[in-house]
């Protein structure tokens, strides 16, 4: 799934992130993931973690909230502790890649798009499944 046909299914912002990961190798991919983890925005004041949906498939505590009141501009919120940089990185990738896009665009993202990030050599399959679970829960909410 690493051809340009697959990134054509991704919103431009997510396709750019996939391309950024494709441009680096080995431990640089992990470094890029850590950069994303530092960029995950704080929750807005109106949203409390207790009101968010837990994602138990993640190895670290992760909570998400999907505001689909505007189907043309879905808002995504994530909460993960600073000591969980991999989980925060995945959440940040999804936030930066999908926040503000239409429900239709998000639902069109291939469930396994994360494989194109090429993190399989530096992140355990169990952790990668956590990212898959985040996307699946977002899509389930939008359906």
From TrEMBL:
<feature type="domain" description="Fe-S metabolism associated">
    <location>
        <begin position="19"/>
        <end position="140"/>
    </location>
</feature>
<protein>
    <submittedName>
        <fullName>SufE family protein</fullName>
    </submittedName>
</protein>
<dbReference type="InterPro" id="IPR003808">
    <property type="entry name" value="Fe-S_metab-assoc_dom"/>
</dbReference>
<comment type="similarity">
    <text>Belongs to the SufE family.</text>
</comment>
<dbReference type="Pfam" id="PF02657">
    <property type="entry name" value="SufE"/>
</dbReference>
């Amino acid at each position: 799934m690493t051809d340009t046909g697959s990134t054509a299914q991704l919103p431009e912002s997510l396709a750019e992130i996939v391309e950024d990961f494709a441009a680096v190798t080995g431990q640089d991919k992990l470094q890029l993931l850590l950069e994303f983890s530092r960029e995950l925005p704080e929750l807005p004041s109106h949203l409390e973690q207790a009101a968010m949906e837990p994602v138990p498939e993640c190895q670290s505590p992760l909570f998400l909230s999907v505001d689909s009141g505007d189907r043309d501009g879905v808002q995504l919120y994530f909460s993960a502790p600073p000591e969980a940089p991999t989980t925060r990185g995945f959440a940040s990738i999804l936030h930066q890649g999908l926040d503000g896009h239409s429900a239709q665009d998000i639902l069109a993202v291939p469930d396994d798009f994360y494989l194109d990030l090429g993190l399989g050599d530096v992140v355990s399959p169990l952790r990668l499944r956590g990212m898959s679970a985040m996307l699946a829960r977002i899509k389930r909410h939008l359906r």
